Amino acid sequence: MLKKGLAYFGLLAAAAMTVTAGLPYAASARTVGTCAPTKLKFVASDLFNSTADGGFVAVPEISLAFVQGGTAPGCVIVEFSGQAFASGPGSALISVDARLDGNDNDNYFPPQPQLAASDVMWGVRRSVTLVFAGVAPGPHTMKIYYRSANGGSVELNRPLMIVHHVP
């Protein structure tokens, strides 16, 4: 039984290496850090939002103003979720972009994540956690944007954003 299990594991590992080797991009370097944002604000909406736009559009009502405390730059952690839905085939990915103070520079980890919207019957809640490192003390605004990753119609309904920041 052990030989069968090891053979199966080896087969899975070889398949994973084959898939990874075929990707059109190189793996990024690992990023490790620590931070302690202990204050949080949140905003939620009951709105249903849809787009087929390939360019990023703001998620209505999902914007928060907050004051980053402290005397030195610290981190901000953003949790975002929404019910992802795709009305047709080929429209199964939603790209998400978080913008601090309106900056579209992907200065968070991981940059521009995608949410699966593959269920054509139900909106399934999907979530992502983003870390902004080195955010200066003072007033800031966080806003979430989304787009159809491949031009099909997608929905991002009942969104929720939680911003953890330094008090």
Brief digest:
Helix content is 12%, strand content 49%. It contains one helix and ten strands, in the order H-E-E-E-E-E-E-E-E-E-E. The chain has one helix at residues 2-21, and strands at residues 39-44, 50-51, 57-68, 74-86, 93-100, 108-109, 114-116, 124-135, 138-148, 154-165.
Would you give an account of this structure?
By secondary structure, this protein is mostly beta strands. Helices cover 12% and strands 49% of the residues. The protein is built from 1 helix and 10 strands; from the N terminus they run αββββββββββ. It has one helix spanning 2-21; strands at residues 39-44, 50-51, 57-68, 74-86, 93-100, 108-109, 114-116, 124-135, 138-148, 154-165. Strands 1, 2, 4, 6, 8 and 10 form a 6-stranded antiparallel beta sheet that branches. The longest helix has 20 residues, at 2-21. Residues 1-27 have low confidence and may be disordered.
